[in-house]
């Protein structure tokens, strides 16, 4: 399979987010090769998107988001969970796509959960050492996989960004509805009223 070229990421963020579904995230590290098929993502559109880290401006932490596209943005939340993003769009836009869930393909043990950004980073071995790397490197890259058909792509609001006002309701979270490796799996069954 071919690695995604850096030009893949240099497009509008929502397009990249959609096209990431079905691609393969590859991490070669001290624990060997780990491969996961991306099944859930969230798009963050830049400084005007109040849920995006870059909405607070350029900082040492967000510098990588300002480009160029095709680099990793890894950060730590709650002092214990890493989150892996791919930088997208044109230089200066400061946009990224958070990878929220992967299906195990290679090197991931049975029972290791990869639903949710913190879990997938722990299992894949991603940490701050992977921040600001080109996404076509030997140790970290993405491969073309089997695209997820449009009929299986669900869209909804991003998780954990309620502070962002109206931006929190935007349907910028995308996932493969047939995957069991999606964080906060959304049931299509209506809730019963008590």
UniProtKB/TrEMBL annotation:
<keyword id="KW-0227">DNA damage</keyword>
<protein>
    <recommendedName>
        <fullName>Putative 3-methyladenine DNA glycosylase</fullName>
        <ecNumber>3.2.2.-</ecNumber>
    </recommendedName>
</protein>
<dbReference type="GO" id="GO:0003905">
    <property type="term" value="F:alkylbase DNA N-glycosylase activity"/>
</dbReference>
<dbReference type="GO" id="GO:0003677">
    <property type="term" value="F:DNA binding"/>
</dbReference>
<dbReference type="InterPro" id="IPR003180">
    <property type="entry name" value="MPG"/>
</dbReference>
<keyword id="KW-0234">DNA repair</keyword>
<dbReference type="InterPro" id="IPR011034">
    <property type="entry name" value="Formyl_transferase-like_C_sf"/>
</dbReference>
<keyword id="KW-0378">Hydrolase</keyword>
<dbReference type="InterPro" id="IPR036995">
    <property type="entry name" value="MPG_sf"/>
</dbReference>
<dbReference type="Pfam" id="PF02245">
    <property type="entry name" value="Pur_DNA_glyco"/>
</dbReference>
<comment type="similarity">
    <text>Belongs to the DNA glycosylase MPG family.</text>
</comment>
<dbReference type="GO" id="GO:0006284">
    <property type="term" value="P:base-excision repair"/>
</dbReference>
């Amino acid at each position: 399979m071919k690695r995604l070229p850096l030009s893949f990421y240099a497009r509008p963020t929502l397009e990249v987010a959609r096209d990431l579904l079905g691609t393969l995230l590859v991490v070669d590290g001290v624990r060997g090769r780990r491969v996961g098929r991306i099944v859930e993502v969230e798009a963050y559109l830049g400084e005007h998107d109040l849920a995006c880290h870059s909405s607070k401006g350029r900082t040492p932490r967000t510098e990588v988001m300002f480009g160029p596209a095709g680099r990793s943005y890894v950060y730590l939340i709650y002092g214990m969970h890493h989150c892996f993003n791919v930088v997208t769009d044109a230089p200066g836009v400061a946009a990224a796509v958070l990878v929220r869930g992967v299906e195990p393909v290679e090197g991931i043990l049975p029972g290791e959960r990869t639903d949710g950004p913190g879990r997938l980073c722990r299992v894949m071995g991603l940490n701050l050492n992977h921040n600001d790397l080109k996404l076509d490197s030997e140790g970290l890259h993405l491969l073309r996989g089997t695209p997820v058909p449009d009929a299986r792509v669900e869209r909804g609001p991003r998780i954990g960004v309620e502070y962002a006002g109206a931006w929190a309701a935007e349907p910028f979270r995308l996932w493969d509805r047939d995957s069991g490796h999606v964080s906060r799996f959304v049931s299509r069954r209506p809730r019963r009223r008590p």
